[in-house]
Amino acid sequence: MVGPQRPQFVLFGSSIVQLSYANGGWGAILSDVYARKADIVLRGYYGWNSRRAVQVLHQVFPKDAATQPSLVIVYFGGNDSMGPHSSGLGPHVPLPEYIEHMRSIAVHLQSLSDTTRVIFLSCPPVNEAKVREGVSGIFSELVRTNELCRQYSEACIELCQEVGVKVVDLWTAFQKRDDWLTACFTDGVHLSAEGSEIVVEEILKVLKGAEWEPSLHWKSMLTEFGDDSPYDLVAFDGKTTLNPSDWTFHRAIQWD
To answer: What is the percent of the chain where pLDDT is above 70?
Structure first.
């Protein structure tokens, strides 16, 4: 463990989370946005469904941990929503069971501390044609449709409203782009840089609008070791220094 101790944001989910540092991913973007403000911790598990998530929930988020996360962002549902395989194997989880698993995750995370905040991400759509093209000859009876994604997305949103958890509606957010089918994915399911930018934008909207104390929006959080220093770069006047602690000019997107 290194110090000083910062607020901890945990990303917990399936491959959308595990791959969130790849291809200009949303986890990597959040790490940049929250540099010197919060530590982004990755707990992503490729191929997992909500059934597997609840099996390890208390190991990933023990109630007796010395420090609890300030924020947990959760994504499960894409694999749950795949159609059932005739063998009974595979990641499919029936919708009622998925809802109860997500409820268990929400209740557990809310119980960690009075200041642990939770955001769920709902299922985004998929590019069905690209999915079929990419998995032919690899997987057996792979059924991934937007109708199923929609059902699980809506169920996630409804549950969040019921239990008081903030939610990002990725199903709707992606489809606001006319070119979402071709722009948002690397393989029809996993996110391109453009898809990840949508995720970050929607998460920051929630964080900015949430009436949480303390605020977890990046502009409201203290910058670690952000004091002015005579060792900073010298300004044009030759007499003062310029504190670069909060400079953001390096970002292609100036996040709000």
So the answer is: 97
Q: Identify whether 31 is a catalytic site residue.
A: no
Per-residue pLDDT tens over the stretch 157-186: 999 999 999 999 999 999 999 999 999 999
Q: Catalytic pick from 122, 190, 196, 217?
A: 190
Query: How many angstroms separate the CA atoms of 239 and 234, rounded?
Result: 7
Using CA atoms, how far apart are residues 145 and 126, in angstroms rounded to an integer?
A: 7
Q: Token pair of 21, please? A: 């540092």
Catalytic residue among 14, 70, 122, 196: 14
108 is an active site residue? no
14 is catalytic: yes
- Choosing from 187, 192, 232, 245, the catalytic residue is 187
- Token code pair at residue 43: 């707990």
pLDDT digits (tens, 9 = 90+) for 84-109: 888 889 899 999 999 999 999 999 99
pTM of the entire structure? 0.96
